[in-house]
Amino acid sequence: MNWGKGLVIGLVLFMSFITILVVLMFRSAEDSFDKDYYEKGLAYDIDYQQKQQVITDKVEPTISYNDEVLSITFKAAETGQINFKRPSSKKEDKVINFTGNEVNINRKELLNGEWKMILKWNNNQKIYLYEKSIFLQ
């Protein structure tokens, strides 16, 4: 084989590689990023202050779970919302509104695997934000 054939074969292989990468790029899942990332970036200071408020007031919630129930206990909460976000699929995300200091969630509602919990609640006109990743088995 002369150098001309080798050059053409190398060029064809490289072009095939680039074409495959382009096809794979367009097939990537759309839920791998937030569509409203700009708005979230603008609200970052507010979220940071709410997270710091949890530390300052020492009101970090207690999270425990077994095979049947996921239990979240707050030191003081009037109303709030729990967002369960699944990193692998946005279709399985859940939102639970609550009132009171304790929330019990049936484990059958949540699939096994990694979940990001975003807890937002208020008490005495203060808003708190707490995030935690959990792995359910």
UniProtKB/TrEMBL annotation:
This is Nitrogen fixation protein FixH. InterPro entries: FixH. The chain crosses the membrane at residues 6-26. Keywords: Membrane, Transmembrane, Transmembrane helix.
